[in-house]
Structures are given as C-alpha cells and as structure tokens.
Amino acid sequence: MVSVNDADKDPLKILGELRVDIDRIDSDIHALLMERGEIIDRLIGVKARMGGGSAFCPGREAEMMRRLAERHRGLLPLDTIEGIWRIIIATFTYVQSNYSVHADIAGGDASMRDSVRFHFGFTVPYVTHHGAAGVIDAVAKADGDLGMFRIDGGATAGAWWTRLEGADTPKIIARLPFVERPDHPAGMPVFVVAKPLFEAAAREILLFSAQLERWRDGLPSTLAAAGVDIIGNAADQYGLSLLLAVPARLGEAAVKAALHTAHAGHVRLHEVGSHAARFAFHRTDALKPVV
C-alpha cells in the first residue's frame, strides 16, 4: 500500500502505485462477492434439506442497513454504499428464488422506478400497475413476488389495506427506505407487500386494518396518546376504515383499548402486516429511532 508520506516522490510514480492498489482492492471485492455467491449456494442447499423457506428476511436486511450506516466513514457517499448493498442483497435473494417486483406507478413512474431500482437493482424484473389494489392482486396470484406502493396507497386508492385481511392474503413486510435521511435518492416512503413470511417477518411495528362505525373528533389524539399512528383512512362498507401502526411492545391490546377510549363503537380489527422500526440518519449523528 502506498505511504501517505509521499510528498518527496515522483507524482507519476505515485499515481502508478495508487492504481495498483485500486486494482488490488477491486480484485478483492470481486473475489469476496464470488465467495458470497458460493455461501449462498450452500445456503440454498441447506434450506432445501429443511423443506424450503422464505428468501426474504426484511428484519435482517433492516439491521444490515442500520449497521452499514453506523460504521460508514470517508469520502464515498452513504447513498452509494447503501445502493451497492441493496443491489447485492436483492440480487442474491433473486438467485435463491426468482421473483419480480410489482409497483404502483399511479403517482408517477419516475419516483417509483427510482425507488425500485435503488432497492432491488436491475436484475430483478420490474412490473408496473396503476393502483395499490392491482399490486396486491398481482402479488396474491404470483409465487414469491413482491409489491411496492406509496404508504398512502395513492390519493384515490381508498381502503386498499382491507385487501390484506385474512390469513393467506399478502401482508406488508417492510417500509422503505430502511434508513431515512435528508436528500435520500430513493426517499419516497413505500410499503413492500408479499405473501405471509411467518418466521422471516420483521415485527417491530405492527399494522392493523380497523373498521369503525363512526369517527370521533378526539380519535386521532386518543390514538396518538396510546402510541398508535393513523397511516391511512377511507370510507368503506362498514363506515370508516383505518390503517393503524403500533409498536410491537404495545401490541393489539393497545389499539383496542385506544379505540374503546375514543368511543369508536363496534370495531373490526385485522393484522395486515408488520415491519422494522423506522430509523433516521443525520450526517453528524448516529442512527436514531423516529419518534
């Protein structure tokens, strides 16, 4: 490796030595990626002997992204590092079990395309739909595909989360980006849906579909005081439908208690997914949970 004390050396010689170092590092990176591929090949074999299992591990992916942001230093932007790692993870998941990403472009193709490509790369097929409902239906019919749409499901999507009710329907498995920060190149908040993962699900935040008889003026503040966030609301055949998020440590009981306190009347409550907790990264700070 070239010494940092090179003021007295010929600049052309230094450049040559530095390029040798860069070539060595590039070769090492390539070798390590191929080694990772060999390990994934062994992992596929182990999973096959165990009867299979999901290739998606959203909780593990979120934790990897947090560790990456915490330890990153130096000249290379974190955006680049995160993008590289997202492509590595998504592509190695793809070689374990081929899948496509179905995405809602009703809110504009450019931002959704950027988000899909940043988080899943160019190897994974990208299939477009107009509306969250279309994405959910496509995932329900596919074998192992993912779906992506804005967390509000689009301004005219209605109570799309009711399509996630039921034991075998698709569920929300992630909220992207895993690490939030100002000027993120794919910072649009999106949900990822898949068929139920069971053992591989990230369950730091639980999501519920709630159908209420009526709206009360104090409902948002009562829910907020209990630690429950209203992610979406729309009218449906039962009256009012809400998409609610609550920390797993509080659980379903906290949601029911808050709705009872708010005098919401008869309530139908269904868990429709879960995801890792949101984390924000600031250039001068460590990762911090989003409150």
Task: Give a verbal description of the structure.
Helix 2 (58-71) packs antiparallel against helix 3, helix 3 (78-96) crosses helix 4 (109-120) and helix 6 (219-225) packs antiparallel against helix 7 (251-261). This protein is of the alpha/beta class. It has 7 helices and 12 strands. The mean pLDDT is 88. It is elongated, with a radius of gyration of 22 Å. It has 3 domains: 10-52; 56-202 and 278-289, no CATH class; 207-272, Alpha-Beta Plaits (2-Layer Sandwich). The relative contact order is 0.12. The strands form 3 sheets. Strands 2-1-3-6-4 form a 5-stranded mixed β-sheet, with helices on both faces. It has helices at residues 11-49, 58-71, 78-96, 109-120, 132-141, 219-225, 251-261; strands at 101-104, 126-129, 146-150, 171-176, 179-180, 190-194, 205-212, 229-236, 239-247, 267-275, 279-280, 288-289.
